[in-house]
Amino acid sequence: MREVRANGMMSNDGSGQRVDGRRLRYQNRRGEILDAIMAHVLEHGINGMSFRTLAAAVGVSHVTLRHHFGTKDELLVEILGAIGKRIQIPDQPGADDVEALVQELWRRWTAPETDRRSRLLFEAYGLAVRNPDQYRTFLDRIVSGWIEIIRRRALQAGCPSGEADDFATLLLAQLRGLQLDLLATDDRARISSALESVVDGIRRQRARWDKTPNR
């Protein structure tokens, strides 16, 4: 027999399993709700975020958020995962122009329309650094993923295999540092000059690679 509570929330589906009507009501809206959450955190950040304030902002109850995402920590994992997935990593198999990669990354990272996303990225980065095990997928995406792209491009450009990891790690650190500096100071002239120094350094490295035998 099908049983329904007076509030219409819980029922028996005929298999002996209790069914949560609220979960059924919103089960097809999970992606829509997560998109709304992402739009909100892009505008307001994730510092001090609570289920109740977030639920009010996206137009659902905090109970609905809990049904979909569990705890606040689990929701943060979802948010950081979504941030990582939405970061596009340019990679062209066979390309060997490291300087062009750097310039393309910089163009994407510093475009005015990506300012809010970049700020959210660093906020999420700080949160993940405090809890690296919990947010390992996010960190792998924005650190290991980028290092691997740069490493492959460097190898294609002639970088000795024994130097590729160090080269990629140092280059990513330089670019991230300049990006954070730009967000903090908006001193584009100074930072653009520093970026040119980074690119010049890559050119010198490539000249050395070309002279390295049996690399």
Helix-strand blueprint:
Elements: E1 10-12, E2 18-20, H1 21-26, H2 30-44, H3 51-58, H4 62-69, H5 72-85, H6 98-110, H7 115-130, H8 136-156, H9 164-185, H10 188-211
Antiparallel strand pairs: 1-2
Helix pairs in contact: 3-4, 5-8, 8-9, 9-10
Task: Describe this structure as you would to a colleague.
The chain has 215 residues and is mostly helical. The chain has ten helices and two strands; from the N terminus they run ββαααααααααα. A two-stranded antiparallel sheet has the order 1-2. Helix 3 packs across helix 4 (62-69). The longest helix has 24 residues, at 188-211. The N and C termini lie far apart (75 Å). Mean pLDDT is 81; it is low at 1-13 and 19-24.
Number of helices: 10
Low-confidence stretches: 1-13, 19-24
Outline: elongated
β-sheet strand percentage: under 5%
Helix vs. strand class: mainly alpha
Q: CA-to-CA gap between the ends? A: 75 Å
Provide the helix percentage.
Answer: 55-70%
Brief description of this entry?
This protein is mainly alpha-helical and 215 residues long. The protein has ten helices and two strands. The chain has a two-stranded antiparallel ribbon with strand order 1-2.
